[in-house]
Design a protein that fits this description.
The protein has 581 residues and is mainly β. Among the domains are: 31-198, no CATH class; 417-581, no CATH class. It is built from seven helices and 34 strands. The strands form eight sheets. Strands 26, 27, 29, 30, 31, 32 and 34 form a seven-stranded antiparallel β-sheet that branches. A hairpin with a 5-residue loop joins strand 10 and strand 11 (209-211). The N and C termini lie far apart (68 Å).
Length: 581
């Protein structure tokens, strides 16, 4: 028995390597035996109090689908204080058009991370519940925690032996009765190893299903390659890989649209926003990923073809604007994405993300998204019509916004009130820090004076300094409690990972918060300090004590530099700093 299992593991691993190398473009995926995974994926069909909203400190990344009779289903994941091995997937339903929602009716909670779920109603009326498991990440994160979740060390060792080379796994459960509040679900089915899916499949005009799967951040750097099925999901196979430049590759949260000329249009989350690739041979070959004409933050978007034949796109901000994770809007295209019209604002606030959607049988559109995953912890829904999107405003009576699907209420420790002082954050016991975080002879008292004005541009996003405000255009990090000296000031929300500059039209005091390069003892914990570059631009370090601008880690401690800028002067920063004025 042991030898047989080992042979199966080796064979499965060898198959994944062959597919990764591109030598078996049309090979049918072999499904690993369920006997090899006796502990997976831990389906909890009657979730208890441990999964109640008052226990969750983090949740987000939702998906939504409508049954033929209008019953709605929603899924998302939570658990822990952020993305971690403590994550689990939740499923809920609504029988009154989303006005009220059930408590979680099912949970996927293995002894490692479960996340990025998706829901999809196939053409035959079967509801697919998809979720991803990440055993290899958790295996190196916290062995002791994992061992406790297993019944005995023998079970744990068996699991590790079977998953040593597995980066992620795609699992599904299905039901043919999604109209019911308590449908009959299939047993969990392992679709593929070393692959991940979080968006809805596309059904091509010839009936082929295309699943937007990828190895995500595989430890072996496997390529982006969709999964295909020509027998309604009974089996799957790969075709060609999508060429994605490694220097701009991000999380591979892509979606595929079939255009009217039968070509495939793949839009992918990239470091620069949204990239695109095309295939004219059904996915056997793809063009190299390149920037699309749609500006966007590095985050998920949603695109689908409506019953009218038009494309619906839900993204942050206008088509040509990158506004960070704010201003969720919907647009229409009747020429396969060459031009976009409308522009319905779904939610104008900051810290919104990861829209997914569906169109019900009656034509209504449902969009689900998350709001402040660590603070408000809300899963929200909007419903509207194609006419609302075209008009760019509400014109129908069926429109609703900010409908709560689920709200978690447990306090996340990363938002606990903490003193904004270096002594507390650095745990120095009250001693004066030495090194670059110390208040030295070159420091100056925090200056006060006129506030300058910023030259407006499409890339300059300003916001009020306030607890919970999103700091960066490409990250969801939020302000901890700001120092009192920054009350009533503004900051510029720039990308964390890119260099940039801001021009000031009038003179005034400008502050820049950037990581302190060295902590007590000279330990170099953060290579991203702008200190040297700021000094070259004439900035001077203030005597404000170092504080954690976000998070609670030592590497997030910032020092504040200041300067009186002149009219027309530019301030240049690189990864990473925050400009305050």
């Amino acid at each position: 028995m042991i030898k047989s299992r080992l042979t199966e593991i080796v064979r499965t691993f060898a198959l994944s390597c062959i597919l990764a190398a591109g030598d078996a473009l049309a090979s049918t995926m072999e499904f690993p035996s369920m006997d090899e995974y006796p502990h997976m994926p831990y389906v909890v069909k009657n979730p208890g109090a441990q999964y109640a909203g008052d226990t969750r400190m983090f949740q987000g990344i939702p998906s939504i689908e409508a049954a033929p009779n209008g019953r709605l289903w929603a899924t998302w994941y939570g658990g822990g204080t952020g993305e971690s091995l403590e994550n689990y997937v939740l499923l809920a339903t609504s029988g009154d058009d989303g006005r009220t929602w059930s408590k979680p009716v099912m949970v996927i909670d293995p002894p490692f991370r479960a996340s990025e779920p998706a829901l999809w109603l196939d053409p035959g009326g079967t509801l697919w519940f998809m979720f991803n498991l990440f055993p290899i990440r958790s295996a190196v994160d916290d062995r002791l925690t994992m061992e406790k979740k297993f019944k005995d060390i023998r079970a744990y060792n068996h699991f590790m032996g079977a998953n040593t080379f597995v980066g992620c796994q795609l699992w599904v459960m299905t039901t043919d009765t999604p109209d019911r509040g308590e449908p009959v679900w299939s047993e969990p089915r392992l679709v593929a190893m070393e692959t991940h899916n979080m968006n809805k499949p596309t059904v091509l005009s010839d009936g082929t299903w295309v699943w937007p799967s990828s190895p995500l951040k595989s430890p072996r750097g496997l390529p982006v390659r969709p999964l295909y099925s020509n027998n309604n999901g009974k089996s799957f196979f790969y075709k060609g890989a999508v060429p994605v430049p490694p220097q701009t590759r991000n999380a591979d949260e892509y979606q595929i649209t079939e255009r009217k000329d039968k070509s495939l249009w793949l839009l992918n989350r990239m470091k620069y926003g949204i990239g695109e690739s095309f295939s004219t041979d059904g996915g056997t070959t793809w063009t190299e990923m390149a920037p699309s004409q749609i500006a966007h933050i590095t985050s998920r978007f949603y695109i689908t073809r409506l019953q009218s034949g038009k494309l619906l796109l839900v993204k942050h901000g206008a088509i040509k604007s990158n506004v960070g994770r704010s201003q969720l809007m919907a647009f229409l295209s009747d020429d396969d994405g060459n031009n976009w019209t409308g522009g319905l604002v779904i939610d104008e606030r900051n810290d919104l993300s990861y829209p997914d959607g569906t169109q019900a049988k009656d034509g209504r559109i449902y969009i689900i998204y998350d709001y402040q995953r660590h603070r408000e912890k809300e899963i929200l829904m909007a419903t509207f019509t194609e006419e609302d999107v075209a008009a760019g405003k509400v014109v129908s009576e069926k429109t609703r916004f900010r409908q709560i699907v689920n709200k978690a209420t447990a306090r996340n420790p990363r938002h606990d009130k903490v003193p904004a002082t270096a002594d507390f954050i650095l745990n120095t016991g009250g001693e004066t820090p030495q090194g670059d975080t110390a208040v030295s002879a070159i420091s100056a008292p925090l200056a006060k004076g006129d506030r300058p004005t910023v030259k407006a541009s499409a890339t300059v996003i300003t916001d009020k300094v306030s607890e919970g405000a999103t700091l960066f255009a490409d990250r969801i990090y939020a302000w901890n409690r700001p120092p009192a000296a920054f009350e009533d000031l503004q900051f510029i929300r720039m990308p964390m990972d890119k260099a940039g500059s801001v021009m000031f039209e009038t003179s005034g005091i400008v502050y820049v918060a950037t990581p302190s390069p060295n902590l007590p003892g000279g330990a170099d914990l953060n290579p991203f300090s702008n200190e040297a570059a700021l000094i070259k631009q004439g900035f001077r370090k203030s005597d404000m004590p170092g504080f954690c601008i976000f998070g609670q880690a030592k590497r997030d401690v910032v020092s504040v530099f200041q300067k009186t800028v002149s009219a027309g002067e530019q301030v240049r920063i690189k990864k990473w700093a925050v400009i305050i004025f």
